[in-house]
């Protein structure tokens, strides 16, 4: 049931906890991918001077 | 003298203070309730935001009257040329306002503060950039809590941007219909299926919609700064990946008009000569300004210009190119200008309440208003006389090739639309000071001054 007379912040706390959980996992794997990409770039000599 | 400044009608939500007008300048009162937060904001965050040109600078002032009992300080911010609202901004203006809000939140968190609201009404265009204007929007940051303004950010910034991205249409009208933000259940229903497969869009709009408006047990603590940073980064990705590129009739108008270079060049020359001679012109409104060529011309003379046009791409490219910092881009249909909205119909001003100018340019627009939208010449003259002290207006006759194209499918003969009727209608409100035929186009350019009422 939707409740129309509550503070707009309500409900957004729970969803932020949930979303932060999903993002924590997503960004964890993204960081692994970035790390591996960086690692192999270094290993096979494709030097990227910006990193 | 006991005098309590009267609040600006849009400034009633925040108990921390309010905006008021005094001697034609806008001030902000900081209430005692907000004193501690204000001082920590001024010490920790304000200098950094001003240095990065993210927030409008202000000075603390003492005013010659006793203010209300709850006043702590009075501040005088740098004044703005013109107040515009998000439904009058092009896509990239709203997008930059969204990114500005996220960047401010990041900077705030790094300095132990947080934004307590996230609304585009706290942002204005100034000198070519979007800038934050609500000095009282900050409070101390508690890392164990999520972001209080998260839902508001999604509804007021992310939702319209993503809807425009997927529909490939400018949908500024939605922001006019939903001034508190587009409800997420509406957004989620309007988005295409493929939006479900983009992580950041799915999380902040679709998943978020399932929780919107439901009462939940608020967690006490348990959140971390890292988690909030992830959410802000994710919102940032969702905003930056939204784009709106569409082609419209008028974006290439001046390209086409190059075929008639003598006409445009001569018109520019005349406008330039007339405006250099005019005294007391500071604020100019360029109606139907398209991509701002004539606005730029007046800006080069040091005038402050608002360039309004109903064509989204013209206004968006004027903003993006940012060629002149004193031309305010404004998305507006003059035959259907922004109404007054909000509580008591006074919270957001109508366009006409904000439009008063020293000079109005009305070039190559009269046929769209009077023939395209059937507005009688006299009604147009009356409307322009209420907003302009001086007027430069181009009359385009019915036998003009562009007008002929427009009238091909119309049955209305517009028998009272001709040069003579035009001069009679406008003479009721204006003195015609000069007039000149524009090369061989058959069009006429007039300089008029408002008759004293």
What does this structure look like?
The complex is a heterodimer of chains A (about 50) and B (about 450). By secondary structure, chain A is mainly α. Chain A has one helix and no strands. Chain A starts with 11 loop residues before the first helix and ends in an 8-residue tail after the last helix. Helices cover about 40% and strands about 20% of the residues of chain B. Chain B contains 16 helices and 15 strands. Chain B has helices at about 35-50, 90-110, 150-165, 170-175, 185-190, 200-210, 225-240, 255, 260-275, 295-300, 310-320, 350-355, 365-370, 375-385, 400-405, 420-425, and strands spanning about 15-20, 25-30, 60, 70-75, 115, 125, 130, 140, 285, 305-310, 325-330, 355-360, 390-395, 430-440, 445-450. In chain B, strand 14 and strand 15 form a beta hairpin. In chain B, helix 2 runs antiparallel to helix 7, helix 3 crosses helix 6 (about 200-210) and helix 5 packs across helix 6 (about 200-210). The two termini of chain B are about 35 Å apart. At the A-B interface, helix 1 of A face helix 3, helix 6 and helix 7 of B.
Q: Which class best fits the helix and strand makeup of chain A?
A: mainly alpha
How much strand content do the residues of chain B show?
A: 15-25%
Task: List segments of chain B where confidence is low: pLDDT < 50 over at least 5 consecutive residues.
Answer: none
Order of helical and strand elements of chain A: H
The number of strands of chain B is 15
Q: What Rg of chain B do the Cα atoms give?
A: 24 Å
Largest interface: A-B, 23 and 31 residues
Percent helix of chain A? 55-70%
Shape of chain A: rod-shaped
């Amino acid at each position: 049931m939707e409740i129309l007379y509550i503070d707009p912040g309500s409900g957004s706390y729970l969803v932020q906890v949930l979303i932060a959980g999903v993002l924590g996992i997503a960004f964890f794997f993204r960081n692994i991918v970035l790390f591996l990409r960086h690692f192999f770039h270094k290993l096979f000599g494709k030097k990227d001077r910006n990193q | 003298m006991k005098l309590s400044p009267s609040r600006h009608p849009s400034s009633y939500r925040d108990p921390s203070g309010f905006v008021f007008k005094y001697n034609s300048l806008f001030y902000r009162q900081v209430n005692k309730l907000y004193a501690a937060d204000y001082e920590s904001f001024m010490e920790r965050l304000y200098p950094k935001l001003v240095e990065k040109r993210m927030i409008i600078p202000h000075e603390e002032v003492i005013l010659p009257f006793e203010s209300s009992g709850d006043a702590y300080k009075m501040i005088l911010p740098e004044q703005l040329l013109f107040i515009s609202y998000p439904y009058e901004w092009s896509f990239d203006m709203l997008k930059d306002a969204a990114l500005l809000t996220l960047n401010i939140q990041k900077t705030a968190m790094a300095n132990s503060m947080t934004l307590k609201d996230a609304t585009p009404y706290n942002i204005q265009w100034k000198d070519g950039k979007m800038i934050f204007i609500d000095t009282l929007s900050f409070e101390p940051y508690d890392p164990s809590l999520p972001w209080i303004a998260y839902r508001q950010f999604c509804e007021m910034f992310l939702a319209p941007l993503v809807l425009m991205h997927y529909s490939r249409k400018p949908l500024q009208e939605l922001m006019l219909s939903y001034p508190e933000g587009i409800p997420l259940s509406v957004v989620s229903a309007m988005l295409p299926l493929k939006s479900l497969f983009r992580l950041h869009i799915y999380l902040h709009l679709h998943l978020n919609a399932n929780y919107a408006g439901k009462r939940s047990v608020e967690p006490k603590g348990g959140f971390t700064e890292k988690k909030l940073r992830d959410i802000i980064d994710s919102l940032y990705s969702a905003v930056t990946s939204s784009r709106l590129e569409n082609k419209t009739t008028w974006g290439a108008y001046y390209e086409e008009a190059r075929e008639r270079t003598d006409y445009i060049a001569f018109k520019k020359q005349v406008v330039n000569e007339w405006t250099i001679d005019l005294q007391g012109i500071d604020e100019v409104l360029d109606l139907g300004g398209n991509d701002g060529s004539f606005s730029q011309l007046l800006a080069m003379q040091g005038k402050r210009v608002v360039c309004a046009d109903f064509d989204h791409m013209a206004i968006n490219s004027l903003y993006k190119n940012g060629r002149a910092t004193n031309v305010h881009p404004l998305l507006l249909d003059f035959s259907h200008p922004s109404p007054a909205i909000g509580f008591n119909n006074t919270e957001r001003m109508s366009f006409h309440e904000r439009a008063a100018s020293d000079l109005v340019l009305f070039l190559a627009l009269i046929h769209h208003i009077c023939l395209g939208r059937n507005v009688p010449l006299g009604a147009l003259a009356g409307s322009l006389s209420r907003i302009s002290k001086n007027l430069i207006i181009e009359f385009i006759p019915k036998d003009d090739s562009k007008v002929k194209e427009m009238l091909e499918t119309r049955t209305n003969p517009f028998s009272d639309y001709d040069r003579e009727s035009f001069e009679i209608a406008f003479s009721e409100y204006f003195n015609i000071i000069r007039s000149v035929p524009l090369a061989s186009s058959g069009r006429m350019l007039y300089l008029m001054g408002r008759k004293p009422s």
